Amino acid sequence: MNKLDIENYNLEQTLLGGQSFTWEKEGEAYVGTHKDNLIILKQNANQILWQTYPVLNNEKLLKEYLNLEFKYLDTIQAIQKDEYIKIATKEIHGIRILNQDFETVLMNFILSSHKSVKGVRKLVKDISRRYGKLIKSEQAYAYSFPDAKVIASLSEKELREIGAGFRAPYLKAAAEKLVKDQEYIKRLKSSSTKEIKEYLTSYKGIGDKIADCILVFGLGRLDITPLDIWAKRVLIEFYGLDPKVNYLDMSNWYTNYFGINTAIAGQILFEYIRNLPRVKQK
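and the corresponding structure tokens:
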């Protein structure tokens, strides 16, 4: 495998923390897909061992996907605004925002509604195994998540049978809309965050939280962070926001406070409060 020296990169929390559902840990290796590419990664302290398939040694793909050009230390320095984030960045370090495929992220997060991260990964894996493309090497294999055209061609019954449940009509409708809106989506990516969010919430099954997940993890908009129960607890327990404050106002508070570094700050605080009992015991 190829070797890449990189400091301050936590593969476990980045790949399996909930921003992507196309990764599995197999022994010491992380095996995942990005579009129609298989990526195998191992971490040894500040060194990442890697290989890509079917195109071998695709370093450009790897660096872009893992966001290796991101100025991690500068960002961590910029968000040192209070005691909570200072403690969190000491306990939780090395998280990056992956550069994922927009289409895959949108469909995967529709499937995430009312499911645990582990449950979504299983569902994504089941759909990929049934309808995706097989990519294999001597070390491992995986199935890519099917593109929108494939999902759009399936019936709601087929999607329900594979495990999509009540999400089946939302997933099918989203896939059809993605196919229909291809040209518009190309222009949309350069639009404002507000315009994109308005577009995303026009999809059935996409509300504010899922739209924010897609904005951050599928489009790299780093001035926002998705607000699940953990992110809301951060605002209530650490920063004193009233639990009755609505989603939009909570989201605006995050952005006003952390600015262009909101996504990273949000991910770090999310991991910190989620692991708080373990951290306290430690």
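(Above: one complete record from the training split.) The mean pLDDT is 95.
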